[in-house]
């Protein structure tokens, strides 16, 4: 599923015009892809002049990079080594909790009979 990096989007609307299923709209001057309408054709990715629309694999790398930047910024504000350790442990607990939620959701989705 394509994803829009709002920081890069320049509101040119080329993706909106190119989308064959009208799955992209402008919200507060930035492109937004409606997941339930998107057919993953990739035309928006190809037409974007500033590469603001990312593919699935790129999204994972981008999100990891953003998480690390955020963690480093938080660590810079921490005063001493012990508070930095607590911060890292807290973030790890939060990520583990999110991981459990995702695993549980995936397990339950597989059980749904259509």
Written overview of the protein:
Helix content is 55%, strand content 11%. It has 114 residues and is mostly helical. The strands form two sheets. A two-stranded antiparallel ribbon has the order 1-4. A two-stranded antiparallel ribbon has the order 2-3. A hairpin with a 2-residue loop joins strand 2 and strand 3 (30-33). The longest helix has 31 residues, at 81-111. It starts with a strand and ends with a helix. The relative contact order is 0.12.
Give a short synopsis of this structure.
The chain has four helices and four strands, in the order βαββαβαα. It is mainly alpha-helical and 114 residues long.
SSE topology sketch:
Blueprint: E1 3-4, H1 14-18, E2 24-27, E3 30-33, H2 43-47, E4 53-54, H3 56-77, H4 81-111
Antiparallel strand pairs: 1-4, 2-3
Task: Enumerate the spans where pLDDT stays under 50 for 5 or more consecutive residues.
Answer: none
Tell me the β content: 5-15%
Q: What structural class should be given to the helix and strand makeup?
A: mainly alpha
Shape: flat
Main β-sheet description: 2 strands, antiparallel
| End-to-end CA span | 22 Å
Question: How many domain units?
Answer: 2
Instruction: Please estimate the helix content.
Output: 55-70%
| Oligomeric state, counting identical vs distinct chains | single chain
Average predicted local confidence, pLDDT: 94
Protein name: Dissimilatory sulfite reductase (Desulfoviridin), alpha/beta subunit
Domain 4Fe-4S ferredoxin-type: 1-28, 29-58
Keywords: 4Fe-4S, Electron transport, Iron, Iron-sulfur, Metal-binding, Repeat, Transport
GO molecular function, one term: oxidoreductase activity
């Amino acid at each position: 599923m394509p994803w829009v990096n709002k920081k890069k989007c320049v509101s040119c609307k080329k993706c909106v015009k190119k989308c064959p299923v009208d799955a992209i709209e402008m919200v507060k001057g930035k492109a937004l892809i409606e997941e339930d309408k998107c057919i993953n054709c990739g035309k928006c990715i190809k037409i974007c002049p500033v590469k603001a629309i990312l593919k699935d694999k790129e999204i994972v790398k981008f999100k990891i990079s953003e998480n690390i930047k955020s963690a480093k910024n938080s660590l810079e504000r921490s005063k001493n080594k012990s508070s930095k350790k607590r911060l890292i442990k807290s973030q790890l607990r939060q990520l583990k909790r999110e991981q459990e939620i995702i695993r549980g959701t995936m397990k339950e989705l597989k059980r749904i009979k259509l």
